[in-house]
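Pinned message: reference record for Probable sugar-binding periplasmic protein
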Amino acid sequence: MKRQLTVLVSIVTLTSLVLSACGSSTSAPPASETQAPGTPAPAQSTQAPAETAKPAAGSGKVEIFSWWTGAGEEAGLQGLIKLFKEKHPDIEVINAAVAGGAGTNAKAVLASRMQGGDPPSAFQVHGGAELNTGWVAAGKVSPLNDLYDQEGWKDKFPKDLIDMVSKDGNIYSVPVNIHRGNVIFYNKKLFDSNNVKAPTTFDEFFAAADALKAKGVTPLALGDKEPWAATMLFEDVLLGKLGPDDYNKLWTGELPFDDAKVKESLEIFKKMLTYVNKDHAARNWQDAAQLVAKGEAAMNVMGDWAKGYFTTDLKLKPNEDFGWVTTPNTNGDFMVITDTFALPKDSKDQASAKEWLKVLGSVEGQDVFNPLKGSIPARIDADPSKYDVYGKATIEDFKKSKLTPSLAHGSAAIEGFATQTNQIINIFVTQGNVDQALKSLKQAADANGIKK
Ligand code: GAL
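Predicted structure (C-alpha cells):
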C-alpha cells in the first residue's frame, strides 16, 4: 500500500461542500420519489419491540442517513441494522436513506438538513475531500479521537485510511468498507463462448470489444442516467493512461487538466463510448450491470458494489457467471472508494449515535456488512474466510496496490469540481467534443482552486 493517497487528501484545496451546498437549492425529491425502478421503498422506522424498549442515553434513537436503498445497496445496511438491534434493543433505529446511486439525491438532502438544524444521528460520507474539505472544514462534525482510543481502533485501520478521514490531527469518521472502482465485470459465458479473454490493456480492450461486436454482442454496458457512472469510466481511463502518480498529481494541480495525456484519455473514453448500449442514458448502474448479468452485454465498468448486486441480489456465482479484471492498464492500482459515517456536531443523541459507529467499526459489523455489499473490510483484522473468492482476492490486492482516490465518489477533489466534472462528462458523452471537454475541465479545476 502506498502513500500517495495520504498526501493527496491533505493537499486538496479547501473549499466547502457545505458552504456551496447550503447556498444552492436542495430540490432533491424525497426517497419515495427518487427510488430506482423496481426497488423496494427504503425502511422508515424499525422500532424495537415495546417489551424490550427501555430509555437509553438521550432520546434512545439513531437516525442513519445514507443512499443505500434498493438492489445492490440495501442488504448490507440492513445487516448492520439487524446487528445493531441485537446489541441495542432499547435504541430505536430510523433508516433515513435517500435513493440515488453515489448519493445523487442524498447529498443535497443532507446539506439541507444540516443547514436547517435537523441533522441525522450519523451520515454516510466518503473519506477524503468530501469529508475533509466539506463537513469538517465547515465545522459540522464531531472529532472521534476519543472513540478511536476507547475502541482501540488506531492500529486496526490502515494508516492511509485513517489519514483520509482525518484533518489537522483529528479523526472525523469511521470507515465501514473499501470499494474498488477500477474493475471490469464481465459475463463469463459470453466471453468463453466468443473466445474472448479478459482485456488488460486498452488495445486488448478494443480487440475484445470488436470481436464481441462482430458477433452481435453489446461489448460494454453503461448506465449513465446518473452521470457519475460515465465519470467513473472516464476516471478509470485517466488512471490507465496517466498511471497512479500522474493521476494523483491532477488533484494537487501538479498536472494540469489540459495535459496531453488527459486529452488522449478523453479520446480513448470517446472510443469506448462507441461500444455501449444505445439506451445508456435511460439506465442507472443496476440496470447496466443487469445487462451483463443477463448476457445482454459483455462488460460493465463499475465499483464492486456491482459484485454485491450480482452475488447478494441476483445470486450469481463469481468465476462462473461473472468474471472480473482491473480496467485497462490499472493492474496494481486500486481506485479507493471508502464509505464512512460521521457524527454531526449538533445531532441530538450523540451517545446512541456513537453506539452505531461502534457497531460499524467493529470486526463483527464489518464482516456482516461487506460480504453482502461487495466491498472489503476497512479493518485489517477482519476475517477473510467470511469473503468469497472476489473478496479474498481484493483484500490481498489492496495490501499491495498503489492507491488512488475516486473523483466520481468524492475522495479526490472538492464537491464543486466533482459536480462540474459530471456535467462536463455528461455533455461530452452526447457531443464528443474533446477540445471543449478539455477546456471545460481546466476551467473547472481553476475555478475550484485545483492548482499548484
Ligand atoms: C458510492 C458508494 C457505494 C455505492 C455506490 C453506488 O458512492 O460509495 O457504497 O453505494 O455509490 O450507489
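Pinned by admin. Summary line: Residues 67-68, 73, 101-103, 179, 303, 305, 337, 339, 409 surround beta-D-galactopyranose (CB under 6 Å).
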